Amino acid sequence: MCRSNVKRFLGVLGAVFLAVILVLPAGFPKIGNSLVPYAHAGFFNQDLELFNEVVDLIAEKYVYPPDYKKLFSAAINEMINKAGQDGFVLRKTSGGNSIKGNKHEVLYDLNYDQAHDLASFKKVYYFLLDEAQGRYSKQDLEVAATVGIMNSLDPYSQYLDKSAFDKSMRDTEGKYGGLGMIVTQKDDKLMIVKTMKNAPAYRSGILSDDIFIKVNGQSVEGMQIHDLAEMLRGYPNTKVTVSLLRPSENKEKTYTLTREIISIETVNYETLDNQIGYVKISSFSKQTNDQLKEALDQAKRDGIKAFILDLRDNPGGLLNQSVKVASHFLYRGRMIVYTQGRRKSDYKEYRAHYKKSLLHMPVVVLVNRHSASASEIVAGALRDSGKALIIGENSYGKGSVQTIFRISDGSGLRLTTSKYFTPSGIDITEHGIVPEIKIVKEIDPREVAADQNLVDDQNGVQTPSIQLKEGDLQKFFKENGVVLDESHDSSLRFAHMVLKNLTIANKKQTLDKAREIAANIHY
Q1: Which of 16, 71, 373, 380 has the fewest Cβ atoms within 10 angstroms?
Q2: Which among 384, 387, 419, 465 is annotated as catalytic?
């Protein structure tokens, strides 16, 4: 390029930059009557890439229309908290809000327009960076803003840093790199409850009741169970050394184990008396339906005639797994659940898959206040089908679907993208799953009155639920010589009595029998 062309190019470039600078003062802070440019507001940088990505996802995918004033206000507040709120003076002004720091003051306002509020947010972001004096970084503020905006949405939407995102994916996969042991904390000791068959801990000879002393040479004294779990888990084919005290021998034993992919057991099956099968599902991971199929195959070999499906304390999991689980007990094509997102077009039905199912077998479903999400989908579908009797407590009432999104920096979002409804249109968030037979610690007369409008979904007749006191149940079984323990409690034993000698899936018949038994239990 010749010298005259270079001069012409630099002149044009200078004019461009001058033009850009002339429009910048709207984004600069005021100090008295002066304007001070931010040192961090450089051109062509990658600031706030994570935050912008999150805002775009919320704008496109969130179940409700975003309230941008609320979202950006929460993001700003969380940044100020991160920066140390005591160092700033916040006040309302006639034009919006003001934040005064040690060096500068920034004025900003928020309305309900995304572009406007994003511009105001950036003013505060660069102001806080200018005030930082090394106390916090760009990343600190950006993550704080992201946490703030996500926490303002609903109780289930959440920002996941890289570690939390990896853990979330590992949990929903139903597999992780580990040793295959279940650990509990008792009397400030971390001890092994049991080892999983054919897993590294089992093969090495580690036993139940062994107590942790060290992991990789580090003492576990005072450590919480979740911290220990993170130390034991890791990538497959990596090693970990554990030192354990065996109380039965009063000896310390040390093992070096190689982590393997461990399949989380979410389904447990056993045969009860009178050809009744008991299936306990603890969560809904990618492995759940495969594990249930194995249990049902065994039940067929055992000649099972009825099922107790225990969903108590099941926090939920994957929507598609709940659909597959419910499909085993319904006729093909029966609606299981439908979801509705923000737009009318965001409607989706989920129907039963299997041509061969157990739809003719009597089923009792056990739920409690901790049965949530995917558990409620299964319980609601089986109840609405007119097939299953629900026993226990009102379920949790989590009727929303979260989708996990990976962010470009390796972190992630758990974002509420739709709500789900039982086949009869019940909003689970509002009502939860209401059992026909309630087992409660104490009977509340107000709940009894409220339950007079419970619908028997098989025939549309309004029928009140039955309430039983847990203490009365326990007394009844004790007087009748029935042994209760932690895994075979009074609710399970009551369900067993209800199903005894029933041969067809008919809720009216099952409910009538439950009423008959309950009449002999009330004291």
Answers
A1: 16
A2: 384
Question: Distance (Å, rounded) from C-alpha 389 to C-alpha 458?
Answer: 11
Pair (428, 450) in one structural domain: yes
Taking CA atoms, 456 is separated from 100, 385, 476, in Å, by 62, 10, 27
98 contact partners, CB below 8 Å, separation of at least 6: 89, 90, 91, 92, 105, 106, 107
Let me know if residue 237 belongs to a domain: yes
Cα dihedral 435, 440, 446, 450 in deg (nearest 10): 0
163 inside domain: no
Burial of 127 (0-12, 13-18, 19+ CB in 10 A): buried
The one catalytic residue among 157, 263, 373, 465: 373
8 Å CB contact between 454 and 465: yes
Q: Which of 305, 398, 438, 469 is catalytic?
A: 398
One-letter amino acid for residue 418 of the chain: S
Establish whether 113 is a catalytic residue.
Answer: no
345 is known as an active-site residue:
no
Spatial contact of 311 and 371, defined as CB atoms under 8 Å apart: yes
d(CA 41, CA 141): 14
Query: What pLDDT, in 10s, does the model give residues 391-429?
Result: 999 999 999 989 999 999 999 999 999 999 999 998 888
400 is catalytic: no
Q: Who's near 429: CB < 8 A, 6+ residues apart?
A: 397, 398, 399, 400, 419
Inter-helix orientation angle 490-499/507-519, to 10°? 120
- Domain identity same for 278 and 361: yes
Spatial distance between the Cα atoms of 298 and 184, rounded to a whole number of angstroms: 30
pTM: 0.73
Q: What is the pLDDT of residues 138-169, one digit of tens each?
A: 999 999 999 999 999 999 999 999 988 887 88
Look at residue 161 and tell me if it is in a domain.
Answer: no
Regarding whether 429 and 305 lie in a shared domain, the answer is yes
Strand order in 276-281's β-sheet? 267-272, 276-281, 306-310, 363-367, 388-392, 437-440, 466-469
